[in-house]
Amino acid sequence: xxxLSLKSLKHHIALMPLFVCVGIGAFGSIFYxxxxxxxxxxxxxxxxxxPEPWEDYRNKQYKFYSPNIDYSKLESPAPKY
Length: 81
Known about the structure:
By secondary structure, the chain is an all-alpha fold.
């Protein structure tokens, strides 16, 4: 397909910003999904060795961005079992 090889992309300069924007968007979405899978307390990858992984996040911040709240000083709303 024309415009997908490096040689034809150099000929169609107007397509370069499109490929850059799509590449940045794809990288950002993959990074965010990987972060959700690895850092979110609702996701448990080792259920047998750590049956209650949410206890690690009782007083930690796990939101992506929260500038106004210091979670280490707040009491957690999570129930204690």
